[in-house]
Automatic annotation (TrEMBL):
Gene3D superfamilies: alpha/beta hydrolase
InterPro entries referenced in this protein's UniProt entry, alphabetically: AB_hydrolase_1, AB_hydrolase_fold
One Pfam family hit: Abhydrolase_1
Gene Ontology terms: biological process: lipid homeostasis; phosphatidic acid biosynthetic process
Protein family (similarity comment): Belongs to the peptidase S33 family. ABHD4/ABHD5 subfamily.
Domain of life: Eukaryota
Protein name: AB hydrolase-1 domain-containing protein
GO molecular function ontology, one term from the record: carboxylic ester hydrolase activity
């Protein structure tokens, strides 16, 4: 069940980010009007189709307006209207690079059994406002974090459980670092930018390093937009690792992977792939911000490891990562210490609990690849908060 509403907040002092609307129109005029088979209406429809997969809770979809005029696409999942239930600390979900609220369709219902759940399209992604981010990494980071804080205030939320996946995990950490009193628990799900680039790290072949430095000059998903009418087929070809995760309702990862070769499964999963395409075929904004925060070859310019000790010592922290995730294999020495031990050591002495959970058979998209296990881990980590 889904409803559509809009709320706004009263204007407050805020650093406004310029809109991309005029720039987007200028860019579109460089190509035939039909070159990219997408627009805001196509994205809205694709999101609606994906959210129709959610049948085990009530969804409320809306736009939340920030003091500077930007809008954040928001989905709220609940089960019932009991006052005790609605008063529980909500969990807020932050998606990864190139994703949106629809990617949590396997998680809304199970997580909402315990407490209200909110998911947002990060500023510059999905159906949220497309703005121009500052190129300075620290200022860019601050712009993302500020939008999350302004959204929390506009929604009237006091304290939250904050869960971020991939790039969303990076932003969740930075939010908790700057607004510790608003976070009851921090859950990092296969977070991007956690590890530092080793001093002696070099690609296996020199040309890989040259290519990485060259590609870093462009937005990560520029090829999707440049491909025009071939963009949807590119997504279907190169994101085939994701399509089966949303198709299969088993918690057997091997069976889920086999479903990728089933033509019927592939056809059913096209709604997810179409949603991914329309999210990323819009004018570049959030991904440009991501590029400003990223170094060549996938590392972050401001990695989280050196900043872990700066977290509020009383804040409970949980790390959930995929045992097969490229984020924790690429560039990591074979003789590196156990990730759980290393993570705890980097955090330093703490009064709040720290847990590290490894989903050993999962890759990066663990929230969908083995959603049953993921949902259970998040429920366990949220218990008593």
């Amino acid at each position: 069940m889904s409803t559509e509403t809009e709320i706004t907040s009263e204007p407050q002092d805020s650093q406004m980010l310029p809109s991309l609307s005029s720039k987007a129109c200028t860019y579109r005029h460089l190509l035939p009007w039909h070159w990219r088979p997408t627009n805001s209406f196509a994205l809205a429809y694709a999101e609606e189709i994906v959210l129709q997969r959610v049948q085990d809770c009530d969804l409320e979809a809306k736009f939340v307006r920030l003091p500077g005029g930007e809008e954040i696409r928001t989905v709220r999942a609940t089960i019932g209207q009991d006052a005790g239930y609605l008063s529980r600390t909500p969990i807020v979900l932050l998606h990864g690079m190139g994703a949106g609220v629809g990617m949590w369709c396997k998680n809304f219902g199970p997580l909402a059994r315990q407490r209200p759940v909110y998911a947002v399209d990060l500023l510059g992604f999905g159906r949220s406002s497309r703005v121009a981010f500052p190129a300075n990494p620290e200022l860019c980071e601050s712009a993302f974090v500020r939008s999350i804080e302004e959204w929390r205030k506009a929604e009237g939320l006091n304290e939250i459980i904050l869960l971020g996946h991939s790039f969303g995990g990076y932003l969740a950490f930075n939010y908790a670092l700057r607004h510790p009193n608003s976070v009851r628990k921090l859950i990092l799900a296969d977070p991007w930018g956690l590890l530092e680039r080793p001093d002696n790290h070099q690609p296996s072949r020199r040309w890989i390093g040259v290519l990485g430095n060259l590609l870093h000059r462009f937005d990560p998903l520029a090829v999707v937009r440049a491909a025009g009418p071939f963009g949807p087929s590119l997504i279907r070809r190169f994101r085939g690792d994701i399509q089966a995760y949303f198709d299969d309702d088993t918690d057997d990862v091997a069976a889920t992977a086999e479903a990728a070769t089933n033509p019927e499964s592939v056809e059913r999963a096209h709604d997810i792939l179409d949603y991914i395409y329309h999210c990323n075929a819009q004018p570049a904004s959030g991904e440009t911000g991501f590029r400003y925060l990223a170094a060549p070859l996938g590392f972050a310019k401001r990695p989280l490891y050196p900043r872990l000790p700066q977290l509020e010592p009383r804040l409970p922290v949980s790390l959930i990562y995929g045992g097969r995730s490229w984020l924790f294999r690429y560039g990591r020495p074979a003789d590196a210490p156990d990730l759980a031990d290393e993570f705890r050591e980097r955090l330093g002495p703490r009064r709040g609990p720290v847990t590290v959970r490894c989903m050993r058979n999962c890759n990066h998209h663990l929230y969908a690849e083995d959603f049953n296990q993921f949902n259970k881990l998040v429920q366990d980590e949220s218990q008593g908060v």
